[in-house]
Each structure stands twice: as structure tokens, then as C-alpha cells.
Amino acid sequence: MLDSARFRHLLSKHCGIDVHNVHAYILGAHGDSEFGISDVCLSVPCIVSDRGVNRIIESPLKKEEITALSHSADILKEAIGSL
């Protein structure tokens, strides 16, 4: 758990986002066999059940909101590419 917390902290600093928005884990035995995995995504609000996504909640966005969302996606792509 401690290694995973450190990994999330380092990723959050690297990407410039709050550590609470980073989901990443260290797998393997402590030492040489450890490796990190992370889950980076950009999503929209959905209703999720035990069978997965039931419905995507569509919300009309203003032009500036679409621009801001697109900018966020670009930042995520860049951050993933630099890992």
C-alpha cells in the first residue's frame, strides 16, 4: 500500500493534478519485481449498474466548456505520452 501511495503522489506531481484524482497501483513483490499501473481517463457522467454503464447523462455544453474539456483531454494525452 505504501509503494502505491508513493506512486500516486509522484504521478500527481508529474501531471500537476490532485493526488485524489490519480488511481495507480504498484503490483508484484517488493523490490525488483514491482511494476506500476495507472488508470487515466476523461469521462462524462453516467449511471452505472452491476452490468456496466446503463445510461450516459448528456448535458449540453457551452462553446467555452467544450474548449476547456478539449484542452483537458490534450493535457491528459500529453501526460500519458510522457510516462
The outline comes out as flat
Portion of residues within helices: 40-55%
Strand content: 15-25%
Mean pLDDT: 80
Number of strands: 4
Number of helices: 2
Largest sheet: 2 strands, antiparallel
Residue windows where pLDDT falls under 50 for at least 5 positions: none
Q: How far is it from the N-terminal to the C-terminal residue, by CA?
A: 21 Å
Structural class: alpha+beta
- Major sheet: arrangement of strands: 1-2
- Return Rg in Å: 16 Å
Q: Key terms for this structure?
A:
flat; 83 residues; 41% helix; alpha+beta; two-stranded antiparallel ribbon
Short description:
The chain has helices at residues 2-15, 63-82, and strands at residues 23-27, 35-39, 46-49, 52-56. It is of the alpha+beta class and 83 residues long.
Structure, described:
The chain is an alpha+beta fold. It has 2 helices and 4 strands; from the N terminus they run H-E-E-E-E-H. A two-stranded antiparallel ribbon has the order 1-2. Strands 3-4 form a two-stranded antiparallel sheet. The longest helix has 20 residues, at 63-82.
